Amino acid sequence: MDTEAFREWSHRAADWGADYRASLASRPVRAQVAPGAVAGMIAAAPPETAEPMEAIFADFERIVPDAMTHWQHPRFFAYFPANAAPAAVVAEQLAGVMAAQCMLWQTSPAATELEIRMVDWLRQAVGLPEVFEGVLQDTASSATLCAVLTMRERALDWSGNRDGLTGHPALRVYASSRTHSSVDKALWIAGLGQRNLVKIPTDRNLAMDVDALRAAIAADRERGLLPAGVVVNVGGTSVGATDDVRAVCEAASEADLYTHVDAAWAGSAMICPEFRTLWQGVELADSIVFNPHKWLGTPMECSAHFVREPETLVKTLAIQPEYLKTHGKDGVINFSEWSVQLGRRFRALKVWFLLRAYGLEGLRARIRGHVRLARQLAARLSAEPDFEIVTAPVLSLFSFRYTPGRNHTDLDSLNLRLVNAINDDGRIYLTQTEHDGRLVIRFVAGQFDTRPEDIDIAFEAICAVARAL
Predict the structure, then answer these.
(1) pLDDT, tens digit, for every residue of 273-291?
(2) CB atoms within 10 A of CB 170
(3) Statement: the pTM of the whole predicted model exceeds 0.85
């Protein structure tokens, strides 16, 4: 493809993208295809000779869009949002064109220095103190893995990477029973083992029982085990469960344990000062993660990982063969030494475009609007005689159940049928979860362009589909 053809097809792709975004409200939210349907339309073997772009693009239009779940749809109320604000998408296009590998300062000075500045902009935006520095990881799962590895190395006096784990007492990490599965996976990958993630029970507010945490740490030390760290939950994926951040961090500090705050979804809301009560005491943590690619508006992947003492993260993860050294440039930051992966994308560019194009006030208005709309829908469903709100809204997330009459003995099956029927209907997209042994339906508002009329459609779809079962 020569320069002029590249120009033509880039324009074509941009035009397609604008038309696609404009058409989203008329599409079903979740893909309405059967397993294997897409694979059946793809050639079984790669082509031996080049094919024309016209044919390739035509096949894309024919096969792909209708078989996608549309995450930018204004009525995407499932999982958590994965927003891609248009201005940030433009930045992603520019980063893709340059296609830089941003592992070292010398491989992309602008990427490194813009990342330093953008992480600090995000720090200021969510109200963290200046002591925190950070890095843009790909996802919160990676940030949590980095935190668990740091817990491990700190507890072993930085000998684990060198000597392995053999001969040491089992290391223990503590988290709420309602923590995200990425914490479990981090212990797998860090070599600590599932059994050494101690799940602490929660109180009636769905927060970690801090007395039980202290007791578990003391009991493990009594048994000769080695407590290493605590993961603190803020806005858990299932129903928004949130720990008392200050109390947990204080208890961890008493035991000299490293603390990591997982605020992957909820952290974006902290740009609004009135929501910061949700993570009061966060300044006591050793590391914190939230995802601008969830609620704030940057496209995947972009996870802000803040650390109180960057040297602990670098000491855990930096490896410096000769070919990765930057000679003659003392004091530069090489962000590959702050993460598991060596290769890195130019993530900071989309943060820069996002924050400048919308401003903090524009982003605050969207988040406040989502919280308001979710609470309005929860109130409307609560007023219906055959629905119950199971967990009250945490920011813009709540859960509910359909409970018609007393003659339905298997409400779990009924609600699973309901969520599947709603998603097959296509007007909205919801997901289910388990809460205290019951299957419940989650609702979360957060898609960048959700409007009040989308909430009206959600209410109508939920009620109509339920009563048609």
Answers:
(1) 999 999 999 999 999 999 9
(2) 15
(3) yes
